[in-house]
């Protein structure tokens, strides 16, 4: 008996029934049964193609006390990182997000040990102030807006500044009613020459913040800041495969690795440096 048609045969347009010893292979049924696997393979191949066509220049980064460096953590809160914690939290364990949290915790502890400055954004929203097109998330007073358990110690860390924000872009979210900017003040008061950025989501809050900071730096609004560095390992985004998005009219396809790569590419194109790993002297 012949083997059933493989994914490539089906994608190429295999549409005929194959009668062999009374067995009828049905391509549509095969796609229904194995569609998620086929789509995952195709997404993986697309990501590899993107890495070839629009490569992201990454390099190892070694930090020392010679250049004043500050760590910026973007939205490492339960609502984005802890399984089942909210509308934007992973529904099941997510290896990429778990790795991001682990690396962010490692960086935070290293900065704390060296008494280097840390700035942490916490996405927090009021119920009566929606953030379209996104559903309600990280509502004030809930556990969603709290730091992940492994970073709760930052609340009592003397070298850490915590800032709750009600918008995607942390730079804009740092502006107070009197026009002052908490993040700008943090950079100036600590005489920070470069920042290392970690967090979630790479293509949303991280990217918007990085682009705004680069523009502010170029306009001399952030002296003495010179370098903006994004840690690729300490950043991640969420995953909504196409077959899942099709189950709900409000969902939009959002392949995790593809969007992560595109975001790093855009950040690099805007002037950020991308660190493949971060070491300490």
Automatic annotation (TrEMBL):
GO terms for biological process: pyridine nucleotide salvage. Residues 70-247 form the Isochorismatase-like domain. Pfam families: Isochorismatase. Belongs to the isochorismatase family. InterPro entries: Isochorismatase-like_dom (IPR000868), Isochorismatase-like_sf (IPR036380), NIC1 (IPR044717). This is Isochorismatase-like domain-containing protein. GO terms for molecular function: nicotinamidase activity. Gene3D superfamilies: Isochorismatase-like.
């Amino acid at each position: 008996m012949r083997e059933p048609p493989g994914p490539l045969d089906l994608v190429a347009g295999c549409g005929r029934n194959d009668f062999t010893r009374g067995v009828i292979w049905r391509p549509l049924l095969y796609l229904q049964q194995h569609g998620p696997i086929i789509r995952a393979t195709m997404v993986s191949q697309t990501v590899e193609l993107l890495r070839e066509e629009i490569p992201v220049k990454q390099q190892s980064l070694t930090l020392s006390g010679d250049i004043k460096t500050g760590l910026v953590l973007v939205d490492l809160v339960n609502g984005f990182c802890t399984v089942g914690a909210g509308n934007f939290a992973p529904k099941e364990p997510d290896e990429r997000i778990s790795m991001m949290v682990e690396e962010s915790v490692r960086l935070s502890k290293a900065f704390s040990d060296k008494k280097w400055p840390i700035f942490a954004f916490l996405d927090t929203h009021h119920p009566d102030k929606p953030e379209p097109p996104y559903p309600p998330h990280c509502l004030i007073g809930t556990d969603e807006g709290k730091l992940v358990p492994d970073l709760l110690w930052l609340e009592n860390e003397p070298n850490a500044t915590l800032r709750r924000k009600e918008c995607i872009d942390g730079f804009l979210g740092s502006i107070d009613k009197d026009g002052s900017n908490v993040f700008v003040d943090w950079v100036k008061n600590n005489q920070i020459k470069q920042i290392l950025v970690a967090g979630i989501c790479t293509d949303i809050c991280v990217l918007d913040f990085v682009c705004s900071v680069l523009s502010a730096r170029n306009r001399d609004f952030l002296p003495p800041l010179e370098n903006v560095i994004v840690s690729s390992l300490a950043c991640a985004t969420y995953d909504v495969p196409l077959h899942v998005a099709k189950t709900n009219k409000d969902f939009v396809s959002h392949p995790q690795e593809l969007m992560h790569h595109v975001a790093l590419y855009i950040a690099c194109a805007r002037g950020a440096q991308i660190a493949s790993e971060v070491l300490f002297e």
